[in-house]
Amino acid sequence: MAKEFTKNMFIMLLSIMIGVIIITYFIGDIIARSKIDTLTAEHKEEIVTIMGQSENFTSHFLKSSGVLDQAREDRAFGNYHFDLGLLWYQSALSQKNSTMMELYKLRGIDNCTKAFPNYLNSNLNFLDAKVYFNETKIFISYTKYLNLLDLYVNLTDAGSRLTMLRYDASKYLMYLTENLTYNPDSNNVTYLTNVTDLFMLFEGAMAAYGGVMQEFEEIQQVIDEYEFFEELR
Description:
By secondary structure, this protein is mostly helical. The protein has helices at residues 2-42, 44-93, 98-136, 143-178, 196-232; strands spanning 180-183, 188-191. Strand 1 and strand 2 form a beta hairpin. The longest helix has 50 residues, at 44-93. The two termini are 70 Å apart.
């Protein structure tokens, strides 16, 4: 009987201990949940603010990037027409036939004219993107993201300067092309007026464009490397 009693007591004690452990776990879980709910309630406004800032940051960054992409697209179309305008100008300048010279001259003027609105639209979009990237900084406090946004601001600033320099170059190129005339006596193409100043303005715009282009590409490279390494982290 003693052995039977000891065995029963052991089973009973074991059951009580297991029950106490389970109850203690549930009580602890309830207390923990209560603390979480309390903290959530206390910091609800802060949490909502952080979530709102995150959404605003994402929204503004995507908007900024979209406008930047449009600026690049407009600039690419402007470059396409500028390059064609320069090609037709050079072709007209080397012609020995008046009819072909006039044809190439008109094509050159036409492409320069088409480049103007592309560069103006690109410039406006670069400037808008610059404003949006600056506004995006309001919604973030992390240094690495602020540094990245500053790079984008610098990129858009360089981009806007690029478009206006190429706009000026297109304008001077158009004036040079309009001045072309065929001289039947010498059987070559010359200019109607003295274009020395126009040449200087054109070459100056192209030289300045090359300098800003180097700056633009360097900033873009830093952005690409920055985003690449951030992804690795």
